[in-house]
Amino acid sequence: MNQQLAGFAPTPVTARMENHGRTMLKVAMATGQDLYARTGSMVAYEGFIQYEPNPPAVRQIASQWISGEGAPLMKCAGDGLLYLADYGADVVVINLDNDSLSVNGTNLLAFDGHLTWGVERVKGLAKFAGQGLWNVGIQGTGWVAITSRGTPIVVDCGRGEDETFVDPDALVAWSPNLKVKGKRSFKAGSLIGRGSGEAYQMAFSGQGIVVVQPSEDSTDRLRVRN
User: Fold this and answer.
1) Which positions ≥6 away from 140 have C-beta within 8 Å?
2) CA-to-CA distance for 143 and 115, rounded, in angstroms?
């Protein structure tokens, strides 16, 4: 039996964050290298790791998130190996090098505690749907893990002059330096997007990437909010 299961055993640590299969994240924890992770995402750990749900730093920043799309976070600290997952979603690991990323809160799995982060409004969309769209902006040098409902596609918006259009409910993350604007479509309302017959798309242009999942979020991110 041990031979049959050998292929699923933990692999040697090669990085702070790495995939163990498509749907699990392995984090090498060490004293002084705290981690913020989605509350409830821990599936296993080795060593001595402590968890603090909704720590003060998270409460202070998340209080800005008025759209209700925020993901509750916990602070993880200690030494050992930590395994995280989110209901079988694919996990994508990103190593930021003095860079930044804007992530849909529902797709944020974990990130290094020393990174600068905060809740930010996506400019250019409020006029299309009530209060608009709010994301988590992360910047600095360190590791970030995001999830995708299925294998995502990463679109390089700098390859041509044409804009890249994305259904907001399939959007995972993008480079914050991209220009973003909304587009409203009435004729295609029954075919594109979600909602009550009126479709919204987000148009990206400039130099950067957009990460799109092959599944729409269960919530309509650009619904009109009262």
Assistant:
1) 96, 98, 100, 112, 114, 115, 116
2) 8
Token representation of residue 21? 């299969």
C-alpha angle 222-225-226 in degrees, rounded to nearest 5:
170
d(CA 42, CA 78): 14
d(CA 69, CA 92): 20
For the chain, 226 residues long, the average pLDDT of each consecutive 10-residue run is 74 93 97 95 97 80 56 91 97 96 93 93 61 81 97 84 85 92 64 54 90 76 43
- Nearest-5° Cα angle at 221, 212 to 223: 145
Distance (Å, whole) CA 44 – CA 59: 25
Q: Measured between alpha carbons, how far is 144 from 95 in angstroms, rounded to an integer?
A: 6
pTM: 0.85
- Is 109:84 a contact under the CB 8 Å cutoff? yes
> Which whole-number Å values give the CA distances from 110 to 2, 18, 24, 159, 222, in the listed order?
31, 12, 12, 29, 25
| Cβ-contact 154, 187 below 8 angstroms | no
